[in-house]
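FW: tagging you since you asked about this chain on Friday. Here's the raw sequence from the shared folder, copied in full. Didn't touch anything.
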Amino acid sequence: MAVGVFYLIEIWYTSAMKMEDTMKKAIILGATGGIGRQLAKELARSLDYLVLVGRDPDKLSQVQEELTGSKAQLSTVILDMLDQKSLEAFVENLDADLLVNCAGLAYFSRGSDLDSASEQNLWQVNYHAPVQLIKQLVKKNQKIHLVQLSSLAALFPHPYLAAYSASKAALQTYTLALQEELRQSDSPIQLGLYILGPVQTAIFPPKLVEALGGGRLQMKPEKVAQQLIRFIEGDTSYEIIGLRYRLLVWLGRLLPQRWLIRVLARYLRKGLN
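HL: got it, structure written out here
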């Protein structure tokens, strides 16, 4: 029954208005990562302008070269999310119909072993920078569709990814609360939050990927990008990407949280060895 409902929902989103009918220019933060890179490939086929943002100029140039010949006119911006002043200047000059934040930082270790500098960097990239970006755009009262990506770790605390889980949970709480504030104030900003399960990217070390069952249990970036576009076209404010993960979340809400955390710890701990 639940599978059928999810299937009908996905069919409905497929019939939504195409992105190129309402948007001309998009910006991707974290465009050199697995998800951002694939999303850039998808958007470059349909939009007129695409801005690729990342901190590594060589990787940005590589992605831009891969997209040569696409419909979109391409440009790149070098931005380190750890640099608050650079981020502020970037947002101040921001002009686009769509902004997707794919940037993220994770450290796999015992929570007590994570040094303060690394933890501060993680919180800056995963929480403080996205919040700063949102607040500046709200003050500008600029019409834009802003998409934040989050993780199942925001819904279920992940041992050995304690700081990562906490930062994603904080971003989810902030975003969902602000969505209602924006709705009540008739803001021109559309704020979306999309939850991802394990994806075939380099954010997590190989040992952790293997502990979680290997690549066969991870979604491919291509599939994630396609579903992201579908939900953006449907003006969806909150969604869990991937049918298997929507079912997993539904099941997880029926089980005791402490039991789920222990199961996660059993598997994730294997990645430490």
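FW: The domain at 2-272 is CATH 3.40.50.720 (Rossmann fold).
HL: agreed, and Confidence is low (pLDDT under 50) at residues 11-16.
FW: great, closing this out.
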